[in-house]
Amino acid sequence: MSDETIAQPNRRDILYIATGAMATVAVGGMVWPLLEQMNPDASTLALASTEVDLTAIIPGQIVTVKWRGKPVFVRHRTAAEIASAENVQLDVLPDPEADSKRVQKPDWLVVIGVCTHLGCIPIGHEGEFDGWFCPCHGSTYDTSGRIRSGPAPSNLEVPKYTFVTDTKIKIG
Amino acid sequence: MSGPSKFTPKSSFARWLERRLPILGFMYDSFVAYPTPKNLNYMWTFGAILSFMLVAQILTGVVLAMHYTPETTLAFESIEHIMRDVNWGMFLRYSHANGASMFFLAVYIHIFRGMYYGSYKEPREVLWILGVFIFLAMMATGFLGYVLPWGQMSFWAATVITNLFSAIPVVGNSITAWLLGGYSVDNPTLNRFFALHYLLPFILCAIVALHVWALHVTGQNNPTGVEVKDVEKETVPFTPFATMKDAFGIGVFLVVYAWLTFFVPNYLGHPDNYIEANPLVTPPHIVPEWYFLPFYAVLRAIPNKLLGVIALFLAVLIPAALPWLDTSKVKSARYRPWFRKAFWIFVVVCIGLGYLGAQPAEGVYLWSARILSTYYFFHFLVLLPLLGKYEKTRPEPESIASSISATHAVAEDAAHV
What DSSP letter does each residue of chain A carry, written as one string? Predict the structure, then answer.
């Protein structure tokens, strides 16, 4: 007896299902804006680019500039720092990457100054590898901004930048 | 413990209302006639203390919101405005900030009491899990509120905690950007944190209502862990007995709260939070508020980002599984000699983790945190299941009544000697 009722849906059943489907779509359509509004808004997305004049940065100096609300380190590396960054065996690195892949000109290292662990700002010229040391949870980076020890999973990120002239870069 | 209401309305208005909305009878059954075990000790006053703190935090919070501005360029100044210009502003802010600490102090005592006396065991599993949800909601509320003053600690706490979600593979960074409303902690973040900090306490109220409802279905546990067998002989009505005892407990608790608020209002805070948020400088030593320190120590103990975050969340959530991890049929630690020792070791481990969470994550501190974190999980996942199986428990009393008469007999003997 019950088999028969299952086998033959009537007009009422189709109406129920259609109504339920419409309601589901409507709820989904309503929930989406409620969640999506939390994503970065148009004003945040409007990518500001930052220009940095390199002439004022002496060898050995790190200058911090703000880009997209985050600090970017522009480091004028000394010959010794370049050498130590280039002469590392890649297999000792937790996140292996050659120094040449991370810089456009060996003198200038440009990295986003946000620790890849939990987002603190590392301190320059500190730590075992003389690159950066993160005060929050003790990650150390070398003079190429690569992670060397501590809980951070990856190297400091290199942002998109271009040399506008020999002495000026544009980040973003 | 629920049954037909014993409430008889006295006035004609009460009778009129009761036929339309039986709210008076409901209140009477829940907070006057509700039977509470005779042998409850002062550890059982913390439920009332917590209810008091929830109301106190909402009251002070609502009035603080009348003077606070959730905008990055104004937030820090609006806090100073509250401190210096608003009538009684300093008192209200210090009450609210120290209120959070007192709230957590009370909840930790309440949780440890439940652990000691086995209050999570059958039939109180749902009651216990609701409690874990309350604790989670409290942690979220406390964190969101700490960000609002927009000091250095606020800013970097927000950064570190939201970045926990970036550890999730593939979608982590998108989730973090979604939470922040940008690529770093900024105005959209502060704005939504304020909205959520105002919302969550009311959700907390709703879960507390469920928690109390579940409690009133199963009835309270008691120091013997033996269920009430004879309501007449073994219980007393909530009012006046529990009401008065709870009121006294709240009074004593208020003395500590008032001492903190009036004499050392910044003792539990961090000087760095009186420096306005600076997105370009991380303070050399960032630590969360004391009530998050044990979990923070667990996070830092693990030298891998994703695993550290997983361990942190597990450490918070694992108590929810206690009713099934602790396999012993005996509830109260009074009759479980080995569990009793394990419990106190666990308490010391938690306090130890709290201490280590405030120290720099290096050398001996880091190794101690690793050992204690391992023990934390060992206690839940290995020790408790094994103890339930192999521990030789002492005999439980037949009933609450017999345990009371036994203690009295001993006391009387002692008096006669």
Answer: -HHHHHH---HHHHHHHHHHHHHHHHHHHHHHHHHHTTS--HHHHS---EEEE-TT--TT-EEEEEETTEEEEEEE--HHHHHHHHTS-GGG-SS---HHHH-SBTTEEEEE-S-TTTS--PEET-STTSSEE-TTT--EE-TTS-EEESS--SPPPPPPEEEEETTEEEE-
CA atoms of B158 and B180, how far apart (whole Å): 9
The secondary element (H helix, E strand) that includes residue B18 is helix B12-20
pLDDT tens digit sequence for B211-255: 999 999 999 999 999 999 999 999 999 999 999 999 999 999 999
Average pLDDT for A129-153: 90
Question: Between A and B, how many residue pairs show a Cβ–Cβ distance under 8 A?
Answer: 88
Contact B182 A44 (CB under 8 A): yes
Residue A31 makes CB contacts below 8 A (sequence gap 6+) with: none
Burial of B225 (0-12, 13-18, 19+ CB in 10 A): buried
Least CA distance to B299: which residue of chain A? A137
Provide the pLDDT for residue B408.
72
Which residues, 6 or more positions from B334, have their beta carbon under 8 angstroms from its beta carbon? B223, B224, B225, B340, B394
Question: CB within 8 A of B251, min separation 6: which ones?
Answer: none
- With residue B236 as reference, give the H or E element that holds it: strand B235-237
- For B182, the closest of A40, A64, A71 (CB atoms) is A40
Q: What is the pLDDT of residues A82-99, one digit of tens each?
A: 999 999 988 889 999 999
* Residue B219 falls in which region: left (phi positive, over 0), alpha (psi -120 to 50) or beta: left
Q: Alpha helices, DSSP H only, in B148-264?
A: 152-163, 172-180, 187-218, 231-234, 243-263
pLDDT score recorded for residue B304: 84
Residue of A nearest to B362 (CA): A138
Residue B269 CB neighbours (<10 A): 20
Question: How far is the CA of B275 from the CAs of B20, B97, B137, B270, B300, in angstroms?
Answer: 57, 17, 28, 10, 25
Q: Is the separation of the CB atoms in B181 and A40 below 8 Å?
A: yes
Catalytic residues of A: 137
Report, in angstroms and rounded to the nearest whole number, the Rg of chain A calculated over CA atoms.
27
- Evaluate whether ipTM surpasses 0.90: no
Query: A135 at the B interface (CB within 8 A)?
Result: yes
